[in-house]
Amino acid sequence: MKVLVIQQRYGIGDMLIFLPYLKAISESNNVKISLLAKRTSRSSDLFFGENLLDEIINLDSTNDGMLGFFKLSKEIRKRKFDKVYIFNGSVRYRLLAIFAGIKNIYQYPLFTSKDVIFQTAKVFTETHIGKILSTEPHLLLKNEDVIKAKKTFNINNETKNIVLGISASGPTKRWGLENYIKLASQLNEHKKCKFFIAAGKNDLEIIERIRASKISATCITLENLPIADILPIIKNCDLYIGNDTGFMHMSAALGVKSISIFTDSPAYSYSGYSKKIFPIVPEGETVESTTHDTLGKEKISFKKVLKIAINHLS
């Protein structure tokens, strides 16, 4: 039995939201699955500690779109899959499965769009495996990697260890850096803290501003580390506070309480799947009302964020 799963969304957070369903399909069919996914989802980096994947087939500019369709279908046909589970309603991927000669095709209803992604995925998977599933992802790591990170970065109970998610995919999704510096400073007055600055190499300007700020002595930046090294650090932390980013989803999937600030994205879709995520939305909005056009970063209450953070650290 050979099983392919197609999950073509771009983000790290998207891939982690689908983790319970990937595991369920693997377990239900009693096989390791092959995953067709975009490189930007970083699935190979995220799932190195998991035991559910046979291989990852990268969906990129060479095999995506109309020009890459026949190349990709040829590659998939060579693998002789018996089943495919398609986590979207695209005609393209149904045709891809047909051209690849896969007999058993399970797919979202055609043209599915504007859905709550974790709900649609849950219903779809439950329908085809006949089992009620939790929406909570649980990302596995090697215990020795977690212990090594704890020693390397001197993570201990003498401080509260906090992942500070200052980055985001766009400026409208970022709560102001000054707010995070002020927040970290006030949290340090409440309890001794160490902050791990979750940002990438594209965020060097804001990282330098952190290093030049009054909280620099309590901060460790992670921009030069691969995801495989960052995950065990997060696992050792007490709390995530930050924007709606892949780091937030990683934290939640690792069992870390995650306070997430949603300024310009659908909070329910990206927080409702996990009890570890505590969403904060702009004043006047609800978790259900926020969208990709909310543009509410100026309407996030600093006092509210501080209060919630202190409560979770107590």
Secondary structure layout plus pairing:
Blueprint: E1 3-6, H1 12-17, H2 19-29, E2 33-38, H3 43-46, E3 53-59, H4 65-79, E4 83-86, H5 91-99, E5 104-107, H6 117-129, H7 143-152, E6 160-165, H8 177-190, E7 193-197, H9 204-211, E8 219-221, H10 227-235, E9 239-243, H11 246-253, E10 258-261, H12 267-271, E11 277-280, H13 302-313
Parallel strand pairs: 1-2, 1-4, 2-3, 4-5, 6-7, 6-9, 7-8, 9-10, 10-11
Helix pairs in contact: 2-6, 4-5, 7-10, 8-13
What does this structure look like?
- There is one protein chain.
- The protein folds into 2 domains: 3-129, Rossmann fold; 143-313, Rossmann fold (3-Layer(aba) Sandwich).
- 39% of the residues lie in helices and 17% in strands.
- The chain is built from 13 helices and 11 strands.
- The protein has a 6-stranded parallel β-sheet with strand order 8-7-6-9-10-11, sandwiched between helices. A 5-stranded parallel β-sheet has the order 3-2-1-4-5.
- Strand 6, helix 8 and strand 7 (193-197) form a beta-alpha-beta unit.
- The protein is globular, with a radius of gyration of 20 Å.
